[in-house]
């Protein structure tokens, strides 16, 4: 079997990907407004990402009135969603899930979304966080949305808090 085959089928040694954030270094989220844009495609996964992001914002002090949510049909629509809500937020969190085995134009969607999210952040000088799972399998997505590999929504929320603090420093 080729090296690429093993890269795709073997799990990496890294366990919980959300645990690399040092909680002591996470600032208070109390003063900031957050907008979370959620893709409805692979909704079981993106709802778990949302849960992780929302509870993390609250855990670090964000006020409930300062957390808003916008749903978009798929990850492709996340940049437009982010652009729509950015005005009223100190940071925007984009949540989505693209699965290679189930998506024929996987690379095209992933690259376009990543570029689009980057563009919105730079255009409006605002943190727009890439909380999009791009996995080979559905199982990998489950593991990264509250399973044994952590929750990308949690990571995205921590990044949003850090970036909102950085921008408002
Ligand atoms: C069309 C499509 C496909 C095949 N796969 C996914 C996916 O795995 N994850 C995701 O978030 N969205 C997917 N979509 C939908 C596109 O993101 C987009 O909503 C449509 O192409 C309409 O613009």
Walk across the major sheet and give the strand order. 2-1-3-4
- Major sheet details: 4 strands, parallel
Q: Rough shape? A: globular
Rg over CA atoms, rounded to whole Å, is 16 Å
Ligands present: ligand DLZ
Q: Helix tally?
A: 6
Q: pLDDT below 50 for ≥5 consecutive residues: which ranges?
A: none
Strand content: 15-25%
Portion in helices = 40-55%
The number of distinct β-strands equals: 6
**End-to-end CA span:** 52 Å
Helices and strands, in order, run as HEHEHEHEHEEH
Q: Please state the structural category.
A: alpha/beta
Mean of the pLDDT scores?
A: 91
Task: Give the arrangement of secondary structure elements.
Elements: H1 3-9, E1 34-39, H2 43-59, E2 67-72, H3 78-85, E3 91-99, H4 106-123, E4 128-135, H5 138-143, E5 145-147, E6 150-151, H6 152-167
Parallel strand pairs: 1-2, 1-3, 3-4
Antiparallel strand pairs: 5-6
Helix pairs in contact: 2-6, 3-4
This protein binds ligand DLZ.
How would you portray this structure in words?
There is one protein chain. The protein is built from 6 helices and 6 strands; from the N terminus they run H-E-H-E-H-E-H-E-H-E-E-H. By secondary structure, it is α/β, with parallel strands linked by helices. The strands form 2 sheets. Strands 2-1-3-4 form a 4-stranded parallel sheet, with helices on both faces. A hairpin with a 2-residue loop joins strand 5 and strand 6 (150-151). The structure holds ligand DLZ. Ligand DLZ binds at residues 39, 41-42, 73-77, 96-99, 102-103, 109. Residues 39, 41-42, 73-77, 96-99, 102-103, 109 line the site of ligand DLZ.
């Amino acid at each position: 079997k080729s090296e690429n085959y093993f890269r795709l089928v073997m799990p990496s040694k890294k366990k919980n990907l959300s645990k690399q954030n040092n909680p002591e270094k996470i600032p208070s989220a109390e003063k900031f407004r957050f907008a979370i844009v959620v893709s409805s495609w692979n909704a079981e996964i993106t709802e778990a990402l949302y849960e992780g992001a929302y509870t993390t914002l609250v855990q670090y002090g964000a006020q409930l009135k300062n957390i808003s949510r916008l749903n978009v049909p798929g990850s492709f629509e996340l940049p437009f969603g982010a652009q729509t809500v950015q005005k009223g937020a100190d940071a925007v969190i984009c949540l989505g899930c693209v699965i290679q085995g189930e998506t024929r134009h996987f690379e095209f969607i992933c690259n376009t979304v990543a570029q689009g999210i980057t563009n919105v952040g730079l255009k409006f000088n605002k943190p727009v966080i890439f909380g999009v799972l791009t996995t080979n399998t559905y199982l990998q997505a489950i593991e990264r949305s509250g399973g044994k590999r952590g929750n990308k929504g949690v990571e995205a929320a921590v990044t949003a808090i850090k970036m909102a603090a950085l921008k408002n420093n």
